[in-house]
Design goal:
Number of helices: 6
Shape: flat
Pfam family, one: CADH_Y-type_LIR
GO molecular function: beta-catenin binding; cadherin binding; calcium ion binding
Keywords: Calcium, Cell adhesion, Cell membrane, Cleavage on pair of basic residues, Glycoprotein, Membrane, Metal-binding, Repeat, Signal, Transmembrane, Transmembrane helix
Oligomer: single chain
Distance between the termini: 187 Å
Strand content: 25-35%
Radius of gyration: 70 Å
Function: Cadherins are calcium-dependent cell adhesion proteins. They preferentially interact with themselves in a homophilic manner in connecting cells; cadherins may thus contribute to the sorting of heterogeneous cell types.
Helix content: under 10%
Protein name: Cadherin-10
């Protein structure tokens, strides 16, 4: 029984479907096994393995896949076919009555190559499974619908120039998404579309190789090659893809350096310093990178001792350097034979050489106006220190090196001769002294002499070192100050001092001093050791401090130079008390004090007492001066409540010179700059009192103003005090109570009006009215 029915549209797959369809054996026939036993076949209801379906279906409607049929199906409509698995119900659908399978849309093998599904047959009425589920595969049959693709659209490659034919450049690879196992859809063949005849490509591997020999980078450096990959083994109708390969020829050292000219001309001024550049020459090399690196050298020429050449690695130039000073007047033209060579040689291309070149460089020296030139780099002269002013020291000489010689004048740089000790003849350069020199003050004098062209301003200086030769003009003297003493108990012939001498003069060989006494001394004698030292010895004993505390011993010291110089130095010998071993105990003035019974400790004590007494006297005088000052506050009872009293009664009412009475009546004129005399001001400028309140305010406001003014006064005393103010106010009904402005006498006044002022003035009325009644009585 056939279980699978093919679609009429799958005629192309007929053969494959037939091979893949399993045919049930004839019932009742059981093939024997290898042992001769008869095997019985188990009955199967399903008989299939796989279906094939073309991708990219272009027909109209749904694509027929195949048909499922079960032996249990009597075609009475009681069997229902069910399909599950990959794409069931979406991509694939089955007719549940007939078992026909259709694809609902076009399929792409490159998206999914096969689908696994499962089918079963069930009874529609009872739902009983008639055929158990069984899997089958729907394979998508490939067609050539994908073109080959390269991994990149553009490749970069390189190959050395001058390579042989077939030199490997690079390998390009394309891929095809079609099925490689079916037909030629994915079988690729490579070919070159652009880049011939320079390059070729292997059809099967995609390897690009050179096709021409000795390609030169200097002629052409970059090439663009287009490679095609075509499927279907390159046959007509196959799909293709292309890629671009940009190939660069790498440089090799196949081009030797070459000078543009055979002769180069340079100019150099004769004033060019050693080490300075004169100019440069450059050779050309068509290569690049290290293959174009060059090295310049001088082969020969009459200027190879005067000039040198160095290679500028950055610019690949040969720089001509001055090696020795140039002189236009001596030689004006030099010639050099210069060679340039590649530093990196490739022996494979040595036949293209030689990889070097030569050229001639002619250097012309230009004349410049040069300053005068001294005959020496420095001068050294000598002169005696006792030479008289005007004495010649030496002569310097300079000349003008130019072709046209100019006269030269000489001067001394006075910054090097501030004391004006020397002079120079401006015409012949003779140096002489202006003052007497002293070797002991300065042994050397360093001056600078300037040589200047008379017709120009160019000048040159040269150092002149003048040595002052020594003359024996200083007498020897003691080498140091000697503190000499002699003991009272000394014996005759005893050594008391060894002396030596020094001489500031510089001897020709060595100093030799002679020591002697100016006169015969009965107490001491001198012995010359003949080694520039001498010993002082006693001629007697029994010295006494009371008779003579010290002795003056004149010593004559002479040298042996010419003329002989001598001096007399006085040696002071003090008489001291010594112990039995000759150790000094006391000398001179202190010995006299000891004889009076006073010791050193007693003298110190007396001195301290005098100092203490003087301090007491000074302190007592200072205290008495402070007591004479009358204190500002006279404290009688309590220091917390004090009244400042001023014992100045003034001259009475008729005294108008002691004070200004107008001040009491008009507080605005009070002097605000008066300083307190009882304390030291703490401010640089005194506190200025605020003028009293204007417009004649009452007494209360005036007192409050004064109170506030005192509270804020920084010069007020730091204790409680009472301040009084003689301000009576103005605008009173009783007018002024003072009799200072009254022109009448006290007896002419009538005080009866006081009794009409009320209780506050009752006491005052009793006083004046009672006083007037008593006077009348």
């Amino acid at each position: 029984m056939s279980l699978v029915t093919l679609s009429e549209n799958n005629i192309m797959n007929l053969l494959l479907i037939c091979f893949s369809t399993l045919i049930r054996p004839v019932p009742g026939i059981s093939p024997p096994d290898k042992d001769g036993r008869t095997l019985h076949r188990t009955k199967r209801g399903w008989m299939w393995n796989s279906f094939f379906l073309l991708e990219e279906w272009t027909g109209s409607g749904k694509q027929y896949v195949g048909k499922l049929h079960s032996d249990m199906d009597t075609e009475d409509g009681s069997v229902k076919y069910v399909l599950t698995g990959d794409g069931a119900g979406t991509i694939f659908e089955i007719d549940e009555n007939s078992g026909d399978i259709h694809a609902t849309r076009r399929l792409d093998r490159e998206e999914k190559a096969s689908y696994t599904l499962s089918a079963k047959a069930i009874n529609k009425t009872s739902g009983q499974v008639l055929e158990r589920a069984s899997d089958f595969i729907i394979k998508i049959h490939d067609i050539n619908d994908n073109e080959p693709k390269f991994s990149k659209d553009t490749y970069l490659a390189s190959v050395p120039e001058m390579s042989n034919v077939g030199a490997f450049v690079m390998k390009v690879l394309a891929t095809d998404a079609d099925d490689e196992s079916y037909g030629n859809s994915a079988r690729l063949v490579y070919s070159i579309l652009q880049g011939q005849p320079y390059f070729s490509v292997e059809p099967d591997t995609g390897v690009i190789r050179t096709a021409l020999p000795n390609m030169i980078r200097e002629n052409r450096e970059h090439y663009q090659v287009v490679i095609q990959a075509k499927d279907m083994a390159g046959q007509m109708g196959g799909l293709s893809g292309t890629a671009t390969v940009n190939i660069t020829l790498l440089d090799v050292n196949n081009s030797p350096p070459r000078f543009n000219f055979s002769v180069y001309t340079l100019n150099a001024f004769e004033s060019a310093e050693v080490g300075s550049s004169v100019g440069s020459i450059k050779a050309n090399d068509a290569d690049t990178g290290e293959n174009a690196e060059m090295w310049y050298s001088i082969l020969d020429g009459d200027g190879q001792d005067v000039f040198s050449i160095v290679t500028d690695a950055a610019r690949q130039e040969g720089v001509i350097i001055v090696k020795k000073p140039l002189d236009y007047e001596s030689k004006r033209i030099y010639s050099l034979n210069v060679q340039v060579t590649n530093t990196h040689l490739d022996r494979r291309f040595s036949h293209l050489g030689p990889f070097s070149d030569t050229a001639t460089v002619k250097i012309t020296v230009k004349d410049v106006d040069e300053p005068p030139v001294f005959g020496r780099s420095h001068y050294i002269f000598e002169v005696d220190e006792d030479a008289p002013p005007g004495k010649s020291v030496g002569t310097v000489s300079a000349r003008d090196p130019d072709a046209i010689n100019h006269l030269v004048k000489y001067t001394i740089d006075r910054h090097t001769d501030l004391e004006r000790l020397f002079n120079i003849d401006s015409n012949n350069g003779t140096i002489s002294i202006l003052q007497t020199l002293d070797r002991e003050t300065s042994k050397w004098h360093n001056i600078s002499v300037l040589a200047t062209e008379i017709s120009g301003s160019l000048q040159t200086r040269v150092p002149v070192f003048i040595k002052v030769r020594d003359v024996n003009d200083n007498a020897p003297e003691f080498a140091m100050y000697y503190e000499t003493f002699v003991c009272e108990n000394v014996k005759a012939g005893q050594l008391i001092q060894t002396i030596s001498a020094v001489d500031t003069d510089e001897p020709l060989v060595a100093h030799k001093f002679v020591f002697s006494l100016s006169t015969v001394n009965p107490n001491f004698t001198i012995f010359d050791n003949e080694d520039n030292t001498a010993r002082i010895l006693t001629r007697r004993g029994g010295f006494s401090r009371q008779e003579m505390s010290s002795y003056l011993l004149p010593v004559v010291i002479s040298d042996n130079d010419y003329p002989i110089q001598s001096s007399t130095s006085t040696l002071t010998v003090r008489v001291c008390a010594c112990d039995s071993r000759g150790k000094v105990q006391t000398c001179s003035t202190e010995a006299l004090l000891l004889s009076a019974g006073l010791s050193t400790g007693a003298l110190v004590a007396i001195l301290l007492c005098i100092i203490i007494l003087l301090m007491i006297v000074v302190l007592f005088a200072a205290l008495r001066r402070q007591k004479k000052k009358e204190p500002l506050i006279i404290s009688k009872e309590d220091v917390r409540d004090n009244v400042v009293s001023y014992n100045d009664e003034g001259g009475g009412e008729e005294d108008t010179q002691a004070f200004d009475i107008g001040t009491l009546r008009n507080p605005e004129v009070i002097d605000t700059n008066k300083m307190r005399r009882d304390i030291i001001p703490e401010m640089l400028f005194p506190f200025r009192r605020v003028s009293p309140i204007k417009d004649n305010t009452d007494v209360r406001d005036f007192i409050n103003s004064r109170l506030q003014e005192n509270d804020s006064d920084p010069t007020a005393p730091p204790y409680d005090s009472l301040a009084t103010y003689a301000y009576e106010g103005n605008g009173s009904l009783a007018e002024s109570l003072s009799s200072l402005e009254s022109t009448a006498t006290e007896g002419d006044q009538d005080f009866d009006y006081l009794s009409h002022w009320g209780p506050p003035f009752k006491k005052l009325a009793d006083m004046y009215i009672g006083k007037e009644t008593h006077r009348e009585t």
